[in-house]
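[AMINO ACID CHAIN]
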Amino acid sequence: MRALVPNEYSTVLPLLETIRNQAVYALAVIDGTQQGSVYVNEGKQITSAFITSSGGFYGVAGDETNDAFVQDIIQYMNDESNHPDFFALGIYTEAWENRMDAYPIQYSRKISRTYYRFNQERFKEFYNEFVQSYGKSAITLQKHFEYYPLELDIATKYREHFYPYYKLVWPTAEKFCAHGIGHFIMKDEELISVCTSPYVGGGYAEIDIITVEEFQQRGLASKLGMLFIQDCLEQNLTPNWSCHTDNGASNKLAQKLGFEKIGEHSMYWYHA
């Protein structure tokens, strides 16, 4: 396979047409919003693509019957020097899964990932019911907790002390603030619940929600999710959701916030 240069990345977009909202990390790389690489098959006609992001999310698209291309992907995956501390290889068709299953991928286990599509009408129904019941201020004003939008100081604290993974997906706090979305809740000057975007590209913003265990089941994630989605709508972005199939809480919250399940696909997840 051969690597494209950044101004050629968009040539693979037709191969992603049916999986765009399942591979927002790939769209972020193609847009140049976030760092990564795009590899394609040898030859003049591009029929297969392998896209990697600096955050470790990778994906394949296009024709899976090119043996040389598939073997190049396997060689790439089995070279530890190619990866950050983590990788997740997305597989979006049964044909690609059958091809990849024929080869061992070191330090990985195959998991199931569930993908959703945003339904704005369903979200509006949930949002309006919440506002009618509790008032709009209840989303950000919370007893004993402090809410913060995304800005440089909190982005730095988040990347440095709460979730260092965001140092991979966003190379600087400034770039995270410029291109990302984030909402945060703190208690006693410590982050306890966050809703942020690890990837933004192709008109989509991927949702990432974390709540410290002792503060779960208090509605914090729902409130931050509403703020995230409202941010997306104001910026003409489509919020996007995917999660492990066995993550019951995440799947439940996705549907609560107006997302509709569109399917499940395998993913090779890093496992030391």
